[in-house]
Amino acid sequence: MTVPSVPVAQVPADAAMLDVREPDEWNAGHAPGARHLPMSQLTARLSEVPADDPLYVVCRSGGRSAQVVQYLAAQGHPAVNVEGGMQVWAAQGRPVVAEGGATPAIV
User: Fold this and answer.
1) Longest dimension (CA), the chain
2) Which UniProt keywords are given for this protein, alphabetically ordered (predicted)?
3) Using H for helix, E for strand and C for coil, what is the string for the chain?
4) I need a surface site. Which of 55, 62, 74, 89 has the fewest CB within 10 A?
């Protein structure tokens, strides 16, 4: 199955984003407005997946989010993988915020 994907540059500024990284990664730096649902908790919390169409899914480098997109697509969710993840997001100068006012970092 081919995973629907888009480059970071094609993600709209107001896109509905789901960040599937672990809490320490999320706390260090994430896209403003993104929702957090770690991949490790996805199946148990499937009812919390936003119904946005499309739903842009992101992780650190694109591997975990591709797996999540494949799973969500099989469940009927219109999910799209963000190629290169938060590493490319930050490298392209897209906004990143951290929890607690810390300096944002992609870890």
Assistant:
1) 40
2) Transferase
3) CCCCEEEHHHCCCCCCEEECCCHHHHHHCECCCCEECCHHHCCCCHHHCCCCCCEEEECCCCHHHHHHHHHHHHCCCCEEEEECHHHHHHHCCCCCECHHHCCCCCC
4) 74
Q: Which CATH class is domain 5-99?
A: alpha beta
Give the model's pLDDT for residue 23: 97
Structure tokens at 29: 């730096």
Give the integer Cα–Cα distance in Å for 97 and 66: 23
Beta pairing, strands 17-19 & 35-36: parallel
Measured CA to CA, the distance from residue 96 to residue 94 in angstroms comes to 7
The one catalytic residue in 20, 31, 57, 59 is 59
pLDDT score of 101: 85
Mean pLDDT for the stretch of residues 62-78? 96
Instruction: Say whether 51 is catalytic.
Output: no
* Single-letter code of the amino acid located at 73: A
